[in-house]
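Hi everyone, sorry if this is the wrong subforum. Our group has a chain we'd like a structural model of before ordering constructs, and none of us has done structure prediction before. Sequence below.
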Amino acid sequence: MEIAPITALYSSLYGEVVPFAEGLLDSQLGNLVRLMEGMYEGRSVHLSRIASNLTARATNGSVVAQLNRFLGNPKVEVRGVYEGIAKTLLRKATAAGQVILIMDCTKVGFSAQLVMVSLAYQGRALPLIWTWLPYRKGHSLTATQVDLLTTLRTWLPVEAQVAFVGDSEFGRCWLQEELTYWGWKYALRQSRQNRVWRRQDKGFLSLDQIELRGQGIQFFPHTLLTEENSLPTHVLGYWADGEDTPWWLATNLDTPEAVMALYPYRMWTEEMFGDMKGNGFDLETTHLRDTDKLNRLTLAVSILYVRLVALGVELTKLGRAREVDRPDRRDLSFFRRGFDFLKRCLKLKEPILPGFFPDFNLVYGS
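Answer:
Right subforum, don't worry. Here is the predicted structure as C-alpha cells:
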C-alpha cells in the first residue's frame, strides 16, 4: 500500500508492535499498523471509514481492497502475533498478584459471536485470547471454552495464582472440573433451572425452588451440582434488593466473602466490550462475516486497546490527567483518557508518551 507521509501515529504504533511481529512480513506488519491507525482516526472498524482516514496516494477503494486482503490472509497468524503481548500481560499481573481471568461472549455484526478471555485490570479488562463463533444465537460449546483456556494456561507463569469468573454460559460442570484440576479458583454463575443436592436436602431440587429473596447471602458448601454430573462444589445464592433475578454461583472458594469479592470482576469485561464498541471503534457494526477476518480485525482492536489503556495509565501516573479529564474528579476511564490524550498529542504535534503495557503496580487514584 502506497501511503505518504509516515505519520506520527503510524510511527508510534509501528515501534510498539514490531517486537511482537517476528512472524509477519514487512508488508503484513505495515497493513496491521495502518489498520489500527485508520481505526483510531475514524473511530470505526469499517474498512471504508478506515481508508478515508488514512493519508494515501492510492484511492480509497484500493486501500480497502488491500486491508481486506490482509484480513483474509491465512499467513497472518493471530495468536502468533498476540501471544507475546498476552504473556507479558500475564507476567506483569502475576508479579502484582492480580491474575483474575474473565470469560465472556458478545454478539457482533450480522452473524457471529466473539468469545474472549480477558484479564481484570482497574475496572476494565485486557484481552488475552479469543475465538469467533459463526452463529449469532446460542451458547458456545464447553469444548471451545476448554480449548481456549488450555492454550491460555500454557502462557501463564508457573507461579501464577489464578481466579476465574464467568456467567452461566461458562458454568458447566466439565469446565469446573478442568479449573479445579488446574488449581484455579472460580466463581461461575448458574442457571436457576440447574438442580442441586445440598447437605440438608433429601434429593435434588432446582435452584429456583430455594427461597432467596430477603435472605441475604446463602452459602451451601459441599453441594452436588446437576443430577447428570453430581459434581461436588460449593453454591452461593444472593438476591440483591431491587434486582429481578438472583445470583446463583458455583465455586471452589471456601467462604461467601471470598466469592462475593471475586464474582463482581465479571462485569469489568462488559466495560471493555463497551470500549471496543460504541465508546471506541464500533466493533459491533462490522459487516464482516468471515470468522478468520473477524479474528484478525480483533487482533488490531486488541492491540490498540491495550496501548490506549497503557497511555491513560501513564498519563495519570505523571499527574497530567487534567489535560483531558476533570481536575476535581476522575470521570474518564483509563481507556478514554488514553484515547483523548492521544488525539490531543496528534493535534498539538506533541510527543506520544512511550510504554505499551499498563502498570500493574499503579496506586489507584494517583
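For your construct planning: Residues 129 and 148 are 7 Å apart (CA to CA). The longest strand covers residues 112-121.
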